[in-house]
Amino acid sequence: MAGLVPPGIPAVPADVSHTAHTKHDEKTDYMNLPCPIPYEELHREALMSLKPETFEGLRFDFTKGLNQKFSLSHSVIMGPTEIPSQSAETIKIPTAHYEFGANFIDPNLMLIGRVMTDGRLNARVKCDLTDNLTVKANAQLTNEPHMSHGMFNFDYKGKDFRSQFQMGNGALFGANYIQSVTPHFSLGGEVFWAGQHRKSGIGYAARYETDKMVATGQVANTGIVALSYVQKVSDKVSLASDFMYNYLSKDVTASVGYDYILRQCRLRGKIDSNGCTTSYLEERLNMGLNFILSAEIDHRKKDYKFGFGLTVG
Amino acid sequence: MASRVSLKTKGKGGKGSKGSDEKSAARCLKEWSTWAMKKAKVVTHYGFIPLVIIIGMNSEPKPQLYQLLSPV
Questions:
Q1: Domain range for residue A196?
Q2: The pTM is what?
Q3: Which of the residue ranges A141-150, A180-189, A192-201, B21-30 would you say has the lowest mean pLDDT?
Q4: Looking at CA atoms only, how far is residue A193 from chain B in angstroms?
Q5: Could you give the C-alpha distances from A202 to A73, A165, A190, A205, B71, in angstroms and in order?
Q6: CA A141 to CA A121: how far, in whole Å?
Q7: Using one digit for the tens of pLDDT, what is the confidence trace for A62-75?
Q8: Considering the domain boundaries, does residue A127 fall inside one?
Q9: Is residue A34, in this structure, part of any structural domain at all?
Q10: Structural domain boundaries of chain B?
Q11: Mind telling me how many Å the CA of B47 is from chain A's nearest CA?
Q12: B59: which chain A residues are within 8 Å (Cβ-Cβ)?
């Protein structure tokens, strides 16, 4: 009689016990949390969707790879450049410049340098000293005295936390730390001290992410409260919204945007509570040939920026 | 009043001579570090891009020199 029991029936309780076992595994293992993303990339998804690099005028970028790791880039930019002005209206000066760049990208060492015709150098260095320790340096050097900036960052990556120490010119010191609290939620904080301006600040940040959405919040004692929410509606579409509030100067900005990543193009657009609409299109014409259109319309400030460009390589 | 003022200045003069030794060490260090930062800035400004190019030209597989200049 026992031998006549069909093989399917004992399999069913085994299945039930298997699913019960996996459900037990899904209960969070607090000793094995994932490593959180770096503190400065907290709002990464929202920034990618809502703040594309809009420009005005013509932009032509040519990148020539000499081998897998080393490439040279030539850029031509022609168009009006905004200069900061005290009055409400924007002042633009037409400029044209050529920028030469050299990039060396290795798994352990990354060197990126860009130099413009007016002598400005933009240099970035990232070096992985060990698996967990990374040194980064960033500098903008000009020929004018006292207008150059440099910053060093030392990053330490732990099993489920990241910490960073920053040193910049003008006696700027900062440190930040972010820790995974659950598999989806991470909390972090930062402090900084600017010697030249005699300012110090402290801030806190939180990030909750799942496969479908990312929500972040950041508060600082300089008065900034920044919240963002990104929903990944499908593989091709993401919607993002952003809220920035400065409780000291009572400035509020909210924006809503979309990001369509399609086969041949990437289209990003956003609208602001200041009445500013932005749109950015990158169209892939051919392998390695990209056509870029950028538009930023601000009816309140009467500032209309349209740009087009071509990226080769 | 005059005697009090002169006492004050004498006191300040005395303290100044003792403090200037410590101050000069800190000032010396600051001057040297400022000089070093200025030189480092000039070296980085002129040398960073050539450094990247030299490191790139010596990486494997070694690119040819004409590839630096030709647009192909």
A1: 39-312
A2: 0.79
A3: B21-30
A4: 20
A5: 39, 14, 6, 10, 49
A6: 5
A7: 999 998 999 999 99
A8: yes
A9: no
A10: 19-68
A11: 10
A12: 67, 69-70, 104, 106
